[in-house]
Amino acid sequence: MPNTLNPLELIARRWQPSAAFVRRAALATVVMAVIIVVTGGAVRLSQSGLGCSTWPKCTPDSLTPTAAMGINGLIEFGNRMLTDVLCAVVGLFIIAARARHPRRRSLTRLGWAQFWLVMSNAVIGGITVLTGLNPYIVSSHFLAATALLTVAVLSWKRASEGDEEPRDLVTRPARQLAWLLVAATGALTVIGTVVTGAGPHAGDAKKVHRIPLDWQEITQLHVDFVYLVVGLSIALWFTLRAVKAPAAPRRTLLELFACIALQGVIGYVQYFMGLPEIVIGLHMLGSTLVWICVLRVCLSLRDRGPLPEEDADKPAPSGEHEAPAPQPADALSR
To answer: Which of 40, 117, 128, 185 shows its CA 20 to 30 Å from the CA of 12?
Structure first.
């Protein structure tokens, strides 16, 4: 009896995307991960968090919003529909990574990791609605979106490099400092969700339970961590200069400085203007850009060699799609 091929294998036998196409597909997942964070913030800032009163339907009797629900229902339902677009983009990346020859299982695994993160965050979003915008669930919803963005950035990086064992480009203390910067920025993000959970923008016009903390004091802690991230970034800059690091990591660090400066300006504007919704939305966009830059700085400090462009762009010989690919080490664990 002939072997039954799964759909991805059938596609791989008929289509061999270029390395550039796979990179663009990976970049598209990053862009969509950022968009889903920003639009999720727009739902909360427009008080549309309960625009759809239940989940997975919009109302108990309707899958889509009704005219009586007004603009809030449309905003909440629109954000839910963007999840479908996100799934399509992640699906394209999975298909392109699987069809690429030679097959790189590391990329397909990262693609499937994104898919399951999207699915889990959709469930968290449903729980958020069913619990009446519980601030702790709202925070976990944002953190799950940040986890998706993290895997998307890693996928983008891995789509641009080979599968050799990671080779360090700088000394161990410099790498440790970079990881400390990642940890501090991660803590900054978590504290930011606490500020959101305790702050005045609950996501709905009705009275919604908030985290029982003084949001202004938590905001001050958030600012303190901003200064810590800035200090670590400056320290890493001088360290990379001292160890004569390649130009690419130093250039990526300059991009981080630009994002931090812009985010700092937005942060102070929103604080002194009394937290206007549009500025908070820009602040959420800035937080995603800072996180992307921090990850790129850390990932730029090691090298896996170039993509085998000439061999990779040749059509796969018959019967070679199932040949095992080398198993790369986990990129974020090194």
So the answer is: 117
C-alpha 77, offset from chain centre: 22
Gyration radius of the chain's alpha carbons: 22
Say whether the peptide bond before residue 249 is cis (omega within 30 degrees of 0). no
Rounded CA separation 160/20 (Å): 8
For residue 321, is pLDDT > 60? no
Q: Are 87 and 115 in contact (CB under 8 A)?
A: yes
Show the beta-strand stretches assigned E in the chain: 167-168, 302-303
For residue 49, give the nearest of 134, 170, 144, 154 by alpha carbon: 134
Cα(68)–Cα(66) distance, integer angstroms: 5
pTM: 0.86
Would you state the structure tokens that stand for residue 220, as one six-digit string?
Answer: 């001050």
Least confident of 51-55, 119-123, 190-194, 327-331: 327-331
Q: Which residue has the tokens 């289509």?
A: 15
- Smallest CA-to-CA distance from 306 within 150, 117, 164 is with 164
Please give the Cα distance from 114 to 29 (Å, whole number). Answer: 9
Q: How far, in Å, CA of 117 to CA of 145, rounded?
A: 8
pLDDT in tens, 176-205: 999 999 999 999 999 988 988 877 665 555
pLDDT (0 to 100) of residue 155: 96
> Between the CA of residue 134 and those of 59, 119, 126, 139, 215, what are the distances in Å?
19, 20, 11, 9, 16
Q: Are 158 and 108 in contact (CB under 8 A)?
A: no
Residue range 26-43, pLDDT digits in tens: 999 999 999 999 998 888
Write out the two tokens for 201: 């923008």
